[in-house]
Write the structure tokens for this entry.
Amino acid sequence: MKNCDQFRDLIEAYALGALDPQERAAVEAHLATGCLDCAKAVEEARWLVSQLAYAAPEAAPSDMLKGRLMQTVRAEAQSHAKPHVMPSKSAIPFWLWTAVAALLLFSIYSAWNARRLQDEIRQANDRASQLLAERQKAEEDLADAKRQAMVMMDPSSHKIALWGEHAHPETLEAKWHSQFGVCIVGDKVPMPSANHVLQLWFIPKKEGMPPMPSAMVRPDASGKIMIYVSAPPESMDDTKAIAITEEPAGGSGWPTTPILWSGNVT
Amino acid sequence: MLLAAFTSTGPREVSPDATLLSLLLQKDVSAFEQLYDRHARLVYGLVLRILQQASTSEEVVQDVFLQLWRNADQYDPSRGPFVPWLCTMARNRALDHLRLKSERQRRREDLPGELPTIVVAPEYEKALDEKRRAERVRALMASLTPQQKKAIELAYFEGLSHSEIAATLKEPLGTVKSWIRNGLLRLKEGLQATT
């Protein structure tokens, strides 16, 4: 007990929490030895100190505090009552599912929209390519038309009459321009057989040289033909004559039928 | 034990708090609400006396009662009555808050008008017991010398140590120790004498 006396004066202040660190440590070390008398004195002192709470003026908290508390407590009581019914729902709140669903929908829409835009871009590119090709063809046609006009109108063009052979009395007219090529026109030209065309041939002057195959045409409904060869296989001076035969569609590399029209170039 | 007479009921009587606490262990919301209604004023008054700021005090009181709700099993009825335990928890929380938030300095700059209106407990038996106990403690505190009363209040409501109180009051450390010890012993004797 004598050992306890040095601590008895500190017990109340210890319970009050007013001891400085060294004194508090000393009291706690003594209590740790298992001194029952001091432990009981501490319990009584703690109770005494707890009564000081009544020295504070009593005051009423706001109704909002109770409202907040009861709201929290009721929510926790509900979750405590059904802790394992729907664990997935309690683990992941509804708003998160909604956000995930919205994100998924947005991703699908974005992918679909990107695909649609790619298709539209591809179609636009195809259309642009088509228009460009059409424009190039139109330009080429226009250039051909200009060249044909030059061939037909230029006085320097060499005029060649193609006389009909056998049952083709119609005469075709050809004009050869040294720069712009050869044009052949004719009216009332009989229609070749089905799946056949009229094919133009250039017959070289040089002996032993085979006829050079050239353009093919079928007359229109009124029997008109217009053949234009912008780049004849031989020059005018090296060409003996030009001729036309009837050949299977697609043309031939060598005349397979008798000559229908022919005319000497030089 | 003479001091045991200051608990709300006798040692062999089951107190309303004990019944409510047993229900609280089963997460009974109604039991929690009744405990709150019975003790919120006392706890809030104590915390407000320490923190001197209404909104902060309500935060601390909310923490205290939520801890009671979530960890009711931490209270051991065999170790003492419920109210002192609850008040001890509330005081510790408030003093922690006071130290952590430096409320002490801020409090001096606060408006005194923030203190809520002090109310009297309802006129039912339990409240009368609480009220009488409070009157007894306040009367005994008033009977102390001003120095004893001031030193004890600085220790209990502001959490100051002997050395800090001596520095605050500009008095010798030994004198402060004597004030506190003698004041508490006088309080103890007064409580015993009134039973």
